Amino acid sequence: MGSSEELVDGRLREWGFRPERFSKNELRQGKTPDRRVYRANELVFFLEVKEVAAGDWLGGERADPRFNRLTADIHDAVKQFDSVNADREVANVMAFVNRDSMCGPLDLYGVLTGDALATDSSRLRIYGKYASGRIQSEKFRVDAYLWFDEQKAFKVFVNEVERRHSDRLRAEFDVICAKLAGQD
Predict the structure, then answer these.
(1) Is the pTM of this model over 0.85?
(2) What residue ranges do the domains of the chain occupy?
(3) In 49-162, which ranges are continuous DSSP H helix?
(4) 36, 69, 123, 133: least buried by Cβ within 10 Å?
(5) How far apart are CA 175 and CA 61, in angstroms?
(6) DSSP class of residue 183?
(7) What is the pLDDT of residues 34-57, one digit of tens each?
(8) Whose CA is closest to 105, among 62, 70, 54?
């Protein structure tokens, strides 16, 4: 099992992107996201990768920490994006690499929207304290959220707030999702 950044870099390369690390000099200047991501010579987005580590929460009276971990990761990523892309000239993309069998893309959906999806596709507002908490406005500074599971599962959530970015990202990732669906 490689690092989370290596996993995401590998997938991006498979999909025709070119991820590049920030230079050591840039890293010394302060916080940065993990990568600049290009298609050919065009900078398409900045990327921050976060790992969802396997948790040791076994239930009980304590609140489930996975939702707090996801919101903390979003909060930290926004600071990193803002350090190099405060004017939002380029899209910000956050990738989660999930290594926790008790966490999944619907947990991220809950944190972003405040809703849980029921089996009949209805939405239940049970995660509002996360969606309306400290990331209430920050989550909109991330233009797409990518979810990778170790088993090659992939999910993408595109934020539609900034149309100049969402249209491009939706076009890029819809093609990728269609190709992945055809491989099943």
Answers:
(1) yes
(2) 4-54+63-183
(3) 66-85, 105-113, 128-131
(4) 123
(5) 43
(6) H
(7) 999 999 999 999 999 999 987 655
(8) 70
